[in-house]
Design brief:
Blueprint: E1 2-7, H1 15-28, E2 33-37, H2 45-48, E3 51-69, H3 79-83, E4 89-90, E5 99-100, H4 110-114, E6 120-135, E7 141-147, H5 154-171, E8 176-180, H6 187-193, E9 198-203, H7 207-220, E10 226-231, H8 238-250, E11 254-258, H9 264-270, H10 275-278, H11 283-298
Parallel strand pairs: 1-8, 1-9, 2-7, 2-8, 9-10, 10-11
Antiparallel strand pairs: 3-6, 4-5, 6-7
Helix pairs in contact: 1-11, 5-6, 7-8
Bound molecules: iron/sulfur cluster (2 copies).
Length: 302
C-alpha cells in the first residue's frame, strides 16, 4: 500500500480540488482507495467527493489537556493566576476561585505545580472528531478529522486519523491511502507527512506561493519519501512559475505537471463536484489526467 499525502505550504492554491480529482482518477484506474482528510481545521474533502452522510459515524477523541480548578480545595490565593504565561487564569472576584479560560489554556501544568493546595488538575479533554463516510458515486471510504473551534492539538488528531486510515486501508486491502494534508508548514502538516511514501506539493505561480513551496519542500526533504510538484493555475504569473520550477529542479522534486487556469474549475467547486467529473474534457481535467498518469508511474502502478 502506498501512502500519498498532498500538501501546499499555504492555503488557497487548490490542494483539495487536486486531491478530489486524483481520488476519482485513481478509482478509474482500478486502484482500491481510502481517502483521508487531514486538513482538520477546515476539512472539506468529503463535501467535494459527495460523501454519503447516511452511514456517517462520529467518534470523539481526546486531543489536548486543560487545567481544572477544584473549587472545594481552592483557598483563593491567586498564585496560579500569576503563574500562567498564557494568561489563561483570571480571578475577577478575590473571594472566589479563579476561572480557567479554556481556549487559552495549553495544558502545560505549571499552575498545578504552583498551587499550594493541589487544587488544580490537568485533564485530557475531547476536542476532535473522526467522521467515516463513503464517496457517493464510487463507494470508497473517506475518513475526516475535525478539530473543535478554538481547540489546540491538531497534530494529535492528524496522527490519530492517519492511524485509523492505515487500519481502514489494511482492512479493504487498499492500494493507496490518499491524504489531503493541512495548508502551511506547522504541526498537522508534519504529522500528515510522517510515514508517507510520496508527497505531492500543490502550488500556484505567485510570489507568496513560491516562498511557501520553498519552505514545504525544505521540510519534506527531511523525510524518507519522494516529492512531486503540481503547479495549479499555471499561467497566472510566468516569473514565479520559472522560480518554482528552478527550486523543484534544484531539490530533486519530480515535476508531475501543470494545471492551466480554467473557468470550469470555480463552477465545479461551487457545485461541489471534482473537475474531472464535472467537465471531463476541460483543460484542467485533461491536465489532471496526465498528472495522475505520471504519479501512477512514479508509484509503480503502471
Ligand atoms: S493557586 Fe490553587 S489555591 Fe491558589 S487560587 Fe489558584 S487554585 Fe486556588
Ligand atoms: S495548564 Fe498552563 S496554560 Fe493552562 S492554565 Fe495552567 S499554567 Fe496556564
Amino acid at each position: 500500500m502506498k501512502e500519498v499525502v498532498v500538501v501546499s505550504g499555504k492555503g488557497g492554491v487548490g490542494k483539495t480540488s487536486v486531491v478530489a480529482a486524483l481520488a476519482i482518477l485513481f478509482q478509474e484506474n482500478n486502484l482500491n482507495l481510502v481517502a483521508l482528510d487531514a486538513d482538520v481545521d477546515a476539512p472539506n474533502l468529503a463535501l467535494l467527493l459527495s460523501a454519503k452522510d447516511g452511514k456517517r459515524v462520529e467518534d470523539e477523541i481526546e486531543v489536548s489537556e486543560k487545567a481544572f480548578i477544584l473549587a472545594d480545595d481552592c483557598v483563593h490565593c491567586g498564585q496560579c493566576v500569576e503563574s500562567c504565561d498564557e494568561h489563561a487564569i483570571v480571578q475577577p472576584d478575590l473571594e472566589e476561585p479563579p476561572i480557567i479560560i479554556r481556549y487559552l489554556c495549553e495544558g502545560c501544568g505549571k499552575c498545578a505545580v504552583i498551587c499550594p493546595e493541589t487544587a488544580i488538575e490537568i485533564r485530557a479533554v475531547k476536542g476532535g472528531k473522526i467522521i467515516n463516510s463513503k464517496n457517493n458515486a464510487n463507494g470508497f471510504p473517506i475518513i475526516t478529522g475535525q478539530i473543535a473551534i478554538g481547540e489546540t492539538g491538531s497534530g494529535k488528531i492528524v496522527t490519530e486519523i492517519k492511524k485509523r486510515g492505515r487500519e481502514a486501508a489494511q482492512k479493504v486491502n487498499a492500494d493507496v491511502l490518499l491524504v489531503d494534508g493541512a495548508p502551511g508548514t506547522g504541526c498537522p502538516v508534519i504529522a500528515a507527512i510522517t510515514g508517507a511514501n510520496y508527497v505531492i506539493i500543490v502550488t500556484e505561480p505567485t510570489p507568496s506561493a513560491m516562498k511557501a513551496f520553498e519552505r514545504i519542500t525544505y521540510i519534506a526533504q527531511h523525510f524518507p519519501l519522494e516529492i512531486g510538484l503540481v503547479i495549479n493555475k499555471s499561467d497566472l504569473y510566468e516569473p514565479s512559475k520559472a522560480q518554482i520550477l528552478e527550486i523543484a529542479r534544484n531539490n530533486s522534486v519530480e515535476i508531475l505537471g501543470e494545471i492551466p487556469l480554467d473557468k470550469n474549475v470555480p463552477y465545479s467547486i461551487a457545485q461541489a463536484e471534482p473537475i474531472v467529473t464535472y467537465a471531463p474534457e476541460s483543460p484542467a481535467a485533461s491536465a489532471l489526467k496526465l498528472i495522475a498518469e505520471r504519479l501512477l508511474q512514479s508509484l509503480r502502478f503502471s
